Amino acid sequence: AITIIAFQLHNTRMVWRNKASAGFLESIY
């Protein structure tokens, strides 16, 4: 169960990183 929670936290962290980078690129163009 702990590994599943850690995996979900890692996924959400990657999603937020992708959103941040996408918003950053959009702000440039």
TrEMBL record:
Name the source organism.
uncultured Adhaeribacter sp
Q: What is the name of this protein?
A: Uncharacterized protein
Top-rank lineage group of the source organism:
Bacteria
